[in-house]
Every structure is written in structure tokens, then in C-alpha cells.
UniProtKB/TrEMBL annotation:
Superkingdom in the source lineage: Bacteria
Entries under SUPFAM superfamilies matching the protein: 6-phosphogluconate dehydrogenase C-terminal domain-like, NAD(P)-binding Rossmann-fold domains
Origin organism lineage: Bacteria, Pseudomonadati, Pseudomonadota, Alphaproteobacteria, Rhodobacterales
Protein name stated in the entry: Mannitol dehydrogenase family protein
The entry's keywords: Oxidoreductase
Span of domain Mannitol dehydrogenase C-terminal: 285-474
Length: 488
């Protein structure tokens, strides 16, 4: 059955579907970067509220700022912006069609449709998932990178911005000039202190062209921190075929695990849906939750993905089914990550690691090592380096984390151990590959990438352990190197 508003009533009886009147929905949220994660996560929370008769004036309008977003827009608009969610669990699957999204804006140079929509009074939240590497951060200082080509363009052309942040500024200028209040800007990316980082991007970019507007934004706009969690693999032809076998012709179905978590700082300047009624946690202490998740889950993903790529292990679940890779994951987590993570209400770090272990092991979730390894130049600093700094400061061993970095360097050389090619998988792939190949004989070259390692590469315990691990990887291979680490 081709998915659309007209066919909702004809879907198989075991498929949950909206029982609210979608024609009565009105927009309250613009979401930028409308990929699988958003549709399985934030949009699902809103859908659940709508199923309960609430949040009918908080429907989502999708948006993007890059040309490749146009393909997703075409697919979703052709099916009235409905999404099929297929929840995968070893005990079985469940299927639900969600309908919280009602439109997807055109993707055009200069982002005029997006700016106009965000300037409308009805829009009270602008949220985004634009990946961890999309926030123009200086690799040396962690601050805002005002020298980037896109940022310089938006500062010089504030009415025709390229970036999400430039578009937000242009919309807020229209709202201010019209005497309208600001909206809440809600980051849903995996960054520690993501609201503060988003505030910095928007305010600092605005200051380059209009200091008065920057001050107005800083005073009037809320940027709550949040932590999001749900494992959502990429959509493949196999996923589309699986949806068809379930009776739904959906051009962009989404598979996901049966776990969701959303922790949000309760700081909204223009109202919000009652997210807590759908299971979200509203709190003043997002930091503890996000630190636990980013270090243990996202950091754990990086422990697995690089070695998985090198050994041609296709998915995270397959890595966990490999006794040696799983043992490497557990040892590094237990000895070098978990000891530096604080507990949160009702969850210790050790219990959280056990939860993540079970989630990663789910064989129904075909989350590829390639997807998880993507953009290591953002994900390694964001997910592993704080654990590395804490372990160094405490005088503890960093051999496991150093081996994780050596595995990444070895992967970026572009060839698996079976001789097959690893295709480019990072925005900075060419630079990474050059450094990785040079590091084969001079390991310090890899750590001398200041935009990634900053001063970490000069820490003797880390540099020595890294050099030893990388030399062993090239000489003895992954299996022997990991076996030696596990034996010590």
C-alpha cells in the first residue's frame, strides 16, 4: 500500500497509525536536518502527544540547507510527510506510521523559504540535527571558527546565508524588526553542552555582521541543552523491501531499536509541547546525562567501528558477537571510561555500560560500522578525548584509548586487512589519509594534527602508547595487537 493520508485506513491492521486529524495540525516547530534519527526520535515524541490529543499546534515543518536534502524532501512530500517506523527487537518487531511532520520546505540557494518560515509568529521552536561536525568549531580551542569559508560568506551576505546558523540569524532579524518575540533554538546533536555551543555559533556569527542583533539574540533567545539517544541505522534498499513485506510502500522507512531517551533543559522562551508526557526528561542538569551517554555509548561506538572496518565486520552487532572485539570494548570502557563518569538518578555508570552492551548486541539492528565510523575527525574528539584527558590527569593507564586512536589512524590509511579499499568516510578524508600513511613510519605525524588533537598529542603517556600500538597494528595486525592488550 503506497503510504499517504488517503491510504492510512487501508494499512494492515497490525500497523499503528495516526488517529488524530492531520488536517487540523498547525506548525509550531521547524526542524533542520531531517534525517532518520529525527524521525525516529523527536518527531515520535510529538506524534505520541498528538495521539493523546495534545500538541496539535506544534506540528513539524522539515527543512535543510544543503542540496542533498532535496532528495529526502521529494520522497517525504510524495507520501504526505508520513514516516514508517519499524522497531526491531530480538523478541519481535512492531510497526508504526507517524504523522507529526506536515511539510518540508524547498531547498534553495540563500535559504529564503526557510528564513520566511522561521520568521512566522507560529514558529516557536527551531530544532536541528546537523551532525556533530556541523558547528564550525576551532579544533585547537574548541571555540567558534570565524575563519571558515561558509562563516565568512554568511557574515558578508547575511540575507543570503549558506549555513543553518546564518538562516536562523536572518529569521531572527525579521522577527526583531517586526516586533515579534524570539523562538527557542533546540540542538539535538551529540555534543557536550550542545545548547551552549549552538548559542555560541549563532551569537558569534551575528556579531560579525550586526552586533546589535547579536545582543538581542543573546538576550531573547533560549538555547536549551539536550541529550538524545536512540540507535537508528541508515535506510537501505533492504529496509525499504522490509517495509513492503509488512504491507507499506514507504520510500524512506526507518528502523530503530526499542529504546529512546530524551533529556532536555527546561529553558524555552516561547512555550513548548509537554514532552514529558511522552516520556522525555525535563531537568536543570542535562550535563550528567549527556556526559554518561556521550562517553559510554558514543565513545563505545568509536571503539567498535574502526576495528570493525579494518576487520571487515559489517555491523556493530557483529562486532559485539566477535568475542575479541567485544572484550576490547569492555576492557577499555571498564578501565578507562566508566571510572570517570558520574552517576545520574537511577543509573550508575556500570549499569549504563551493561545497558549499552545489551543494546549494541541486538542482532536485529543492522547499524553498519561504516556509518558509525563516519566523521571520526569530529566524533573522536567529541566522544573519546575527555575520557582520555581525565585518565591522564588521574595518572591512569590510557593504553586502551591510545589503541583506539591507533585503530582509527590505521583505518584512515584506507585499506582493510583483507586488502579491500575503505572508501572516503570523513569530511577531512584526504588530510587524514595523508597523515595516516605518513604515521606508518612516523606515528607522531598523526598526533600532530592540531585541529584534532590540540595539545593531547604532546602528552608523553598517550604519545608513547599510541606509537607502540600503531607500530604493532602495522607489523602484527589487529587481532594480535588486541590480543596483547587484553592479555596485559
Amino acid at each position: 500500500m503506497k503510504l499517504s493520508n488517503a491510504t492510512l485506513g487501508q494499512l494492515p491492521t497490525n500497523v499503528l497509525r495516526p488517529h488524530y486529524d492531520r488536517s487540523a495540525l498547525t506548525p509550531g516547530i521547524v526542524h533542520i536536518g531531517l534525517g532518520n534519527f529525527h524521525r525516529a526520535h523527536q518527531a515520535w515524541y510529538l506524534h505520541r502527544l498528538m495521539q493523546a490529543g495534545e500538541a496539535m499546534d506544534w506540528a513539524i515543518v522539515g527543512a535543510g540547507v544543503r542540496p542533498y536534502d532535496a532528495a529526502m524532501r521529494e520522497r517525504l512530500r510524495a507520501q504526505d510527510c508520513l514516516t514508517t517506523l519499524i522497531e526491531l527487537d530480538p523478541s519481535g518487531i512492531s510497526v508504526e506510521v507517524t504523522g507529526a511532520m506536515i511539510d518540508y520546505l524547498p531547498i534553495v540557494e540563500g535559504n529564503a523559504p526557510l528564513i520566511r518560515k522561521m520568521a512566522e509568529p507560529a514558529i516557536r521552536i527551531v530544532s536541528m540535527t546537523v551532525t556533530e561536525g556541523g558547528y564550525y568549531r576551532d579544533g585547537k580551542t574548541g571555540g567558534f571558527d570565524a575563519t571558515h569559508e561558509d562563516i565568512r560568506h554568511d557574515a558578508a551576505n547575511p540575507d543570503r546565508p549558506r549555513t543553518v546558523f546564518g538562516a536562523i540569524i536572518a529569521a531572527l532579524r525579521l522577527r526583531r524588526d517586526a516586533g515579534l518575540p524570539s523562538f527557542t533554538a533546540l540542538c539535538c546533536d551529540n555534543l557536550q553542552g550542545n545548547g551552549a555551543i549552538l548559542r555560541q555559533c549563532v551569537v558569534e556569527l551575528a556579531r560579525l555582521s550586526d552586533p546589535d542583533l547579536a545582543g538581542w539574540i543573546d538576550t531573547n533567545t533560549a538555547f536549551p541543552n539536550s541529550m538524545v539517544d536512540c540507535i537508528v541505522p541508515a535506510t537501505t534498499p533492504e529496509v525499504i523491501e522490509r517495509a513492503r513485506q509488512l504491507g507499506i510502500d514507504d520510500a524512506a522507512p526507518v528502523t530503530h531499536e526499542n529504546f529512546r531517551q530524551w533529556v532536555i533543559e527546561d529553558d524555552f522562551c516561547a512555550g513548548r509541547p509537554a514532552f514529558e508526557k511522552a516520556g522525555a526528561t525535563l531537568t536543570d542538569d542535562v550535563h550528567s546525562y549527556e556526559s554518561m551517554k556521550l562517553r559510554i555509548l558514543n565513545g563505545g561506538h568509536q571503539l567498535l567501528a574502526n576495528v570493525g572496518e579494518l576487520l571487515s565486520v559489517p555491523t556493530i552487532a557483529d562486532c559485539m558477537a566477535d568475542p575479541q572485539i567485544r572484550a576490547f570494548f569492555r576492557k577499555v570502557e571498564e578501565e578507562e571510561i566508566v571510572p570517570f563518569v558520574a552517576p545520574v538518578p537511577s543509573m550508575t555508570p556500570a549499569a549504563y555500560l551493561d545497558l549499552i552492551d545489551r543494546r549494541f548486541t541486538n542482532p536485529q539492528i543492522r547499524d553498519t560500522t561504516r556509518r558509525v565510523a563516519f566523521d571520526g575527525s569530529s566524533r573522536h574528539p567529541g566522544f573519546l578525548f575527555q575520557s582520555l584527558r581525565d585518565a591522564l590527569a588521574a595518572g591512569q593507564s590510557v593504553r586502551g584509548l591510545a589503541l583506539a586512536e591507533a585503530l582509527w589512524a590505521r583505518m584512515c590509511a584506507g585499506e582493510r586487512e583483507d586488502g579491500s579499499t575503505i572508501e572516503p568516510n570523513d569530511p577531512n578524508w584526504d588530510d587524514l589519509r595523508r597523515a595516516a600513511l605518513a604515521a606508518r613510519t612516523a606515528p607522531a605525524v598523526w598526533l600532530a594534527q592540531p585541529g584534532i588533537y590540540g595539545t593531547l598529542g604532546a602528552e608523553p603517556p598517550f604519545a608513547t602508547a599510541f606509537a607502540d600500538a600503531l607500530a604493532r597494528l602495522w607489523r602484527d595486525g589487529c587481532r594480535e595487537t588486541i590480543a596483547r592488550f587484553l592479555a596485559d
